[in-house]
Amino acid sequence: VLIDKTMGTFIWPVFGYVEDVGLSSQVREHHTGERFLIRKTGDRLVVTPAPILKFALAHQNVYVGKLISKSIPFLTLIGILSSRLMTEIYRAGPGGQHHRPHAQLRIHFLNQLPVIVMPDGINIGPKPGKREIIKTATALKSSDIASFEPIPMDFPSDKTKSVEIARKIALYHAVCAEFTAELLSKRDETTIAALDRVVRLLYGGSIENG
């Protein structure tokens, strides 16, 4: 059993052990494999991947999610959901309950959170390579940020421009995944700030305003 009180953003929950209660195969499948956990209680998003791919039953105070599409990398989704911006968006919505005692995150409103994914049917050519990803990540951790442009909220209809924007989404996705992997290994305020920067770029906000 994964104990919800021990989990935090980018912090693995610890294991507890209970007697086998004869769960159905459907429940076991849901709690097995690559999946992420979102704590139900609180007025902010607390998100982390499951610490193992093998079966481990999540506590009832935790939502369990799985990717159903390849339009966004798994670690990128973890990073986006863990960002300050996503908590701000959730709090600003009808289910936010900011500062409310015993606040609970509602699955209906979590399902409505916007997630920037790769658009279908666009061939961006070669994917961003490791060197480009590391170079971008390093710049986002420093003050060298003037050259970064946010993703426009209205996707362009022009083919050349749409390929350019789609490739930029792929790059920001990869950088977000890189930061998430780093934070799962070691929490660092510089990396947390850089993650927030790249998420704001994905959502059309400038770094300076973010």
Give a description of the structure.
- The protein is mainly alpha-helical.
- Helices cover 39% and strands 5% of the residues.
- It is built from 7 helices and 3 strands; from the N terminus they run H-E-E-E-H-H-H-H-H-H.
- A 3-stranded antiparallel beta sheet has the order 2-1-3, covered by helices on one side.
- Strand 1 and strand 2 form a beta hairpin.
- Helix 2 (74-82) crosses helix 6, helix 5 (130-141) crosses helix 6 and helix 6 (159-185) packs antiparallel against helix 7 (189-202).
- The mean pLDDT is 86.
What keywords describe this structure?
single chain, 210 residues, mainly alpha, 5% strand, globular
Oligomer designation: single chain
Mean pLDDT: 86
Radius of gyration from the alpha-carbon trace, in angstroms: 18 Å
**Portion in beta strands:** 5-15%
The number of helical elements comes to 7
Order of helices and strands: HEEEHHHHHH
Describe the main β-sheet briefly: 3 strands, antiparallel
Unreliable residue stretches: none
How many strands? 3
